[in-house]
Q: What sequence folds into this?
């Protein structure tokens, strides 16, 4: 792989994004660690540099078109044309439909759908020019429907349609697009869910693991490994797929 290939991972200050940024750096990419808070992004980038990799931290609200344009231009300038994009930034605003506010709905749509749209639009110009690109969007097992997540499940199902359309439009330029749909992954996001429903995170994990065929919850590394494969040169014939990484079958 060319040592100059640049990857952007959004929502990478912690959780799945941070682990994916570290994994792609160890795969040989120069990595832009993107998150809302530039200092938190830079802290993750520093750990990558300390481990011998190349990375910068960039503060971008992925829902803000101006910040996306300026941030992606900065990445291209400082690290090189971004040809790998992992749209991982995400939030939850869970509530039963009758209690869900318009703000809960709009906030989730803005980060997941508008964010992925803006980031992909900004990066595809570099990918099509380079005649190589890898786009990975974070969907979720919740795309199949989940109580209390009308907004989130709609957004994560929407990302699957977005992914398939990108695959159709961009394939001729050497660009693939795939979605990874995690099940239960142990991060701050699932810790927040445990808190909302009023159980300890340990009990939540133990209970969830019993429902999962492989008998454990997922770790960020499980997702990072799948993303690493989808971003690799050898995954060039895999496009428009939704890969559930959930410790058991989902489709
Ligand atoms: N944890 C799970 O079980 C799970 C399951 C399925 C899907 N996912 C998806 O995987 C992705 C990562 O999840 P996680 O568990 O690591 O979450 P997390 O909450 O630990 O991390 C999400 C990151 O996204 C950032 N972010 C939020 N809004 C942003 C914005 N507007 N611009 C830039 N960054 C923003 C946050 O600051 C945070 O650092 C999300 O898209 C999530 O929906 C997670």
A:
């Amino acid at each position: 792989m060319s040592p100059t290939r640049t990857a952007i991972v959004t929502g990478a200050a912690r959780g799945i994004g941070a682990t994916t940024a570290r994994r792609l750096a160890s795969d040989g990419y120069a990595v832009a660690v993107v998150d809302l808070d530039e200092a938190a992004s830079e802290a993750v980038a520093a750990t990558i540099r300390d481990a011998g990799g190349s990375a910068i931290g960039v503060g971008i609200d992925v829902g803000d078109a101006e910040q996306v344009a300026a941030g992606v231009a900065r990445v291209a300038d400082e690290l090189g044309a971004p040809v790998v994009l992992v749209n991982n930034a995400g939030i939850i605003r869970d509530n039963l439909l009758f209690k869900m506010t318009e703000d809960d709905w709009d906030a989730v749509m803005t980060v997941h759908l508008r964010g992925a749209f803006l980031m992909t639009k900004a990066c595809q110009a570099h990918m099509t020019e380079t005649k190589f690109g890898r786009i990975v969007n974070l969907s979720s097992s919740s795309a199949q429907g989940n109580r209390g997540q009308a907004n989130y499940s709609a957004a994560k199902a929407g990302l699957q349609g977005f992914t398939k359309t990108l695959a159709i439009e961009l394939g001729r330029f050497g660009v693939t697009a795939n979605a990874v749909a995690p099940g239960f992954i142990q991060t701050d996001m699932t810790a927040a869910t445990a808190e909302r429903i009023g159980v300890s995170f340990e009990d939540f994990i133990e209970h969830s693991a019993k429902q999962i065929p492989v008998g454990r919850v997922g770790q960020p590394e499980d997702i990072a490994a799948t993303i690493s494969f989808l971003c690799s040169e050898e995954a060039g014939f895999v496009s428009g797929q939704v890969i559930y990484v959930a410790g058991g079958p989902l489709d």
User: Anything to note?
Assistant: The radius of gyration is 17 Å.
